[in-house]
Amino acid sequence: MVKRLLFLVLIFYALVLLQTSFFTPFGEINLILFLIIFLNLFERSEGTIGLYSSVIAGFFLDTFSNKPFGFYLFSLVALSLLIKLILKRYIQFPVLIK
Question: Given phi > 0 = left and psi -120 to 50 = alpha, else beta, which region is 27?
Answer without folding.
Answer: left
